[in-house]
UniProtKB/TrEMBL annotation:
An MF annotation (GO) of this entry: 3'-5'-RNA exonuclease activity
Pfam families referenced in this protein's UniProt entry, alphabetically: CAF1
The protein's name: Uncharacterized protein
Gene3D superfamilies for this protein: Ribonuclease H-like superfamily/Ribonuclease H (3.30.420.10)
Species of provenance: Anisodus acutangulus
Lineage: Eukaryota, Viridiplantae, Streptophyta, Embryophyta, Tracheophyta
Length: 615
C-alpha cells in the first residue's frame, strides 16, 4: 500500500468506538492505493501428504484505461514509500508494467454511461456531425481548402454514379497524388478513406460533406491502428443512410463496451477468487479486505453493518491467522504476545520452511510440508524469502495457517473430496472473525456484523484507560498551543472537583478527549464553556477553564460529533482544521446540551402522562 493513515488523528486510539475504528479503516482503503498484490493458492497432494503452494506476485497500478473517464488520484505517505524502497520495491516496474483494474461499480457505471450516450442521442450528435455542419470558415485557408475538397468529392461522386459499381470486395484506388484519398468499400457501399489530414481539415471536410452532399455520409469507425478511420460513404437513399448510421453507431457502441471490458484488468483475479467461494486466509487482514472491496467491488459502505452484509456476498469464508495465533496457548508460548507480526510468526511457527529447521516444536506433532511450484513465467516475479513482498507474504500466511490447522488436528485428506476447509467443524469458531483493531482487541464478526472485544488479548495491549464510557466523553479542539494533558486535567479538576475527570487523551496537538467520571458532567462542562465563550468580564477571565479555552477558536462536542467528523471523506492534518472543514466550527455544543435537556423534559412529561393514564 502507498500509506495507512491520511492524518495523525485518524490513527487508532484507545477511545475509539468500533464504528469509529471502521470509519478509519474505510478512510485508509479509499485514500491510498494498492501497488502490489500477493495471492498464493494451496493445494493438498494426498500422494505426497503435503501442500503444493503456487505463489503469485502482481504489480498493480490504477491507470486511466477508458477514454474520457476521470484520472485516478491517491495519497502517498513518505514513510510507506521509504518502507517499500527499503525492501527493494521496484516503482518503475509498478508504474510501467503494473496491471490496471476497474471495480465492479466502475465497470457498471462506464457501461451505463456508454448506453445512455448511444441510446439517448441521435447519430449526428454522437458522431459530431451536427456541430461540424455549422463549422465557421473564418480563415481564408479554410475557405480555399473547403472548395478544393468540395470539388474532389464531387468528382469522385460523379465518376461513381457514371460508372456504377457492384463489386463488394474492398478496393484501394488512388484518387490523388498524395495518397490522402483511397477508394474502398464499407459494408458493400463505395467509400473514400481519408488519411493524412489534420483534425481541423477533417472538421472542414465533415462540414462540406454534410452541407453539399445529401447522399454521402461522413462516418468514423474503428481502424486497425489506435486512431479511428474517417470515411465518406455513398448511400442509395435516405433509408440506406439511416441504416448505415445505425450500423456505425452500433459498431462504435460495441467497440466502447469492449474497451471497458478489457479495462477490468486485475479484477479478473479477484472475480475468480470470489467465484470459487473457497476459504480466504489473511494475516490481520481487515484493512486488506477493505482495500479489495474499495478497489475491485465498489465504494466502501458507510457503516460496518452494511459492509459486512456486502462483503459476505463475495467472500463468504475469511479467516485471520492472527485470531488463530492469539486463541491458541501453544502458539502464544512460541510467539511473543506483543509481536505477532507475519514474519516473526512465520519463523516461530514454520521454522522448517523459514529456516530449514526440522523440528517445529508444536507439541511433538509432525510438521506439514509445503512444496513451492513456480513456472518460468512467474519465476521472475517470485523472490523466495523476500521480506514484505506481497507474493511471499501470502505464501507465509498460508504456511502459518497450514501449521495451525495441523495443530488443531485437522485431516487435510478428508477435505480434498469434501470441498475444502471452509466447513471444517474445528475452524468454525475462527472463520469470519477479523481483528478490527489488534491493539484494542476489537473483533468484528462478519457473519453477524457485531463487534466484540477479545478477552484473550494480551494484557500489555489492553487500553491503559479502564472502563471507557463514551457518554462521559467530550471532544475539545482549537486549544491554545503546546497545552499538555496534565494541564488540561488540572484546570477541569479545579472547576468541577478532584474526582470529576477520569482521563485526558490527545488526538493531536489541536484536540483532546476528556472523559468525566459521570455522564452529567458532560452537559455541565458544555454549558460552562459556552457561557465563558460569550463573556469577557473579570470573573470569567479568572475562571479555571479560561486557561484551556482560546476564545472563539476553542470548540467542544459530544462523542457523536467525533463520529460525524471521522465519517467525512475530507482529511486535514490537524483535527481542528478537519472539524472546521466538515462544518462543525460553530457547534460549541450549548445547543447540543440544550437539545439533550429538551429531550429529557419531553420524556419526563411523557412518563408522567403515561402514569396518569394508567391510574
Amino acid at each position: 500500500m502507498t500509506g495507512v493513515t491520511s492524518a495523525p488523528w485518524r490513527e487508532s486510539f484507545d477511545f475509539d468506538r468500533c464504528d469509529i475504528r471502521y470509519l478509519k479503516v474505510k478512510d485508509s482503503a479509499e485514500k491510498f492505493a494498492v501497488v502490489q498484490f500477493g495471492v498464493c493458492p494451496f493445494r493438498w497432494d494426498s500422494n505426497k501428504q503435503s501442500f503444493i503452494a503456487h505463489p503469485h506476485n502482481f504489480y498493480i497500478f490504477p491507470r486511466q484505461e477508458i477514454p474520457g473517464s476521470q484520472s485516478y488520484e491517491f495519497l502517498c505517505q513518505t514513510a510507506s514509500l521509504d518502507f517499500l524502497a527499503k525492501y527493494q520495491f521496484d516503482f518503475n516496474v509498478c508504474i510501467r508494467e503494473g496491471i490496471s483494474y476497474l471495480s465492479r461499480s466502475q465497470e457498471e457505471e462506464a457501461l451505463e454511461r456508454i448506453s445512455s450516450i448511444y441510446m439517448a442521442e441521435s447519430s449526428d450528435s454522437v458522431f459530431g456531425l451536427r456541430e461540424d455542419a455549422e463549422f465557421p470558415l473564418v480563415r481564408m485557408a479554410d475557405v480555399l481548402f473547403a472548395e478544393r475538397m468540395k470539388n474532389t468529392i464531387m468528382e469522385w461522386r460523379a465518376s461513381l454514379l457514371s460508372k456504377g459499381s457492384s463489386n463488394s470486395e474492398t478496393k484501394q484506388i488512388s484518387t490523388d497524388p498524395n495518397q490522402r484519398f483511397q477508394m474502398v468499400f464499407f459494408k458493400t457501399r463505395p467509400a473514400l478513406a481519408l488519411s493524412g489530414f489534420t483534425s481541423r481539415q477533417l472538421r472542414v471536410i465533415k462540414a462540406v460533406t454534410r452541407k453539399h452532399f445529401k447522399d454521402l455520409a461522413y462516418i468514423r469507425v474503428a481502424g486497425e491502428a489506435t486512431s479511428p478511420q474517417q470515411l465518406i460513404v455513398y448511400t442509395d437513399s435516405n433509408d440506406d443512410r439511416d441504416l448505415l448510421m445505425k450500423e456505425v453507431k452500433d459498431g462504435l457502441h460495441k467497440e466502447a463496451e469492449i474497451k471497458v471490458k478489457s479495462a477490468v484488468g486485475f479484477r479478473h483475479v479477484i472475480d475468480l477468487l470470489s467465484s470459487e467461494r473457497k476459504l480466504i486466509v489473511g494475516h490481520n487482514c481487515f484493512l486488506d479486505m477493505a482495500h479489495i472491496y474499495s478497489k475491485f467491488i465498489g465504494p466502501v459502505p458507510l457503516t460496518a453493518e452494511d459492509y459486512v452484509s456486502s462483503i459476505q456476498k463475495y467472500f463468504p469464508f475469511i479467516i485471520d491467522t492472527k485470531i488463530l495465533l492469539n486463541a491458541s496457548g501453544v502458539f502464544q508460548k512460541m510467539v511473543n504476545k506483543s509481536n505477532t507480526s507475519l514474519t516473526r510468526a512465520f519463523v516461530s511457527i514454520c521454522p522448517q520452511i523459514a529456516l530449514g529447521v526440522k523440528n517445529s516444536g508444536l507439541a511433538d506433532r509432525p510438521c506439514v510440508e509445503v512444496e513451492v511450484q513456480v513456472d518460468e513465467k512467474r519465476s521472475s516475479n517470485w523472490n523466495s524469502g523476500a521480506k514484505h513482498e506481497a507474493g511471499y507474504d501470502a505464501f507465509m500466511t498460508g504456511c502459518i495457517f497450514a501449521q495451525a490447522c495441523n495443530h488443531l488436528g485437522i485431516d487435510f485428506s478428508l477435505h480434498v473430496l469434501a470441498g475444502g476447509l471452509a466447513k471444517e467443524t474445528k475452524l468454525q469458531n475462527y472463520i469470519n472473525r477479523l481483528y478490527l483493531s489488534w491493539v484494542s482487541g476489537d473483533i468484528i464478526d462478519l457473519s453477524i456484523g457485531k463487534c466484540t472485544t477479545d478477552s484473550s488479548a494480551s494484557s500489555n495491549l489492553k487500553s491503559r484507560y479502564q472502563e471507557i464510557s463514551f457518554p462521559s466523553i467530550i471532544l475539545l479542539w482549537g486549544l491554545p498551543a503546546k497545552l499538555k494533558a496534565r494541564e488540561i486535567r488540572a484546570c477541569i479538576l479545579q472547576a468541577f472537583g478532584p474526582t470529576s475527570v477520569s482521563s485526558v487523551y490527545h488526538l493531536d496537538e489541536s484536540a483532546v478527549f476528556i472523559q468525566f467520571s459521570k455522564p452529567e458532567l458532560v452537559s455541565k462542562f458544555l454549558e460552562m464553556k459556552e457561557t465563558l465563550s460569550r463573556k469577557s468580564d473579570p470573573i470569567s477571565v479568572l475562571h479555571p477553564l479560561s486557561n484551556i479555552l482560546n476564545g472563539e477558536y476553542t470548540h467542544a462536542a459530544t462523542y457523536d460529533v467525533y463520529q460525524q467528523i471521522c465519517s467525512s471523506s475530507i482529511s486535514k492534518k490537524l483535527f481542528a482544521d478537519q472539524a472546521e472543514a466538515v462544518g462543525i466550527k460553530h457547534k460549541t455544543m450549548s445547543s447540543w446540551a440544550e437539545q439533550g435537556k429538551k429531550e429529557t423534559r419531553y420524556l419526563t412529561k411523557k412518563t408522567k402522562l403515561e402514569c396518569l393514564m394508567r391510574k
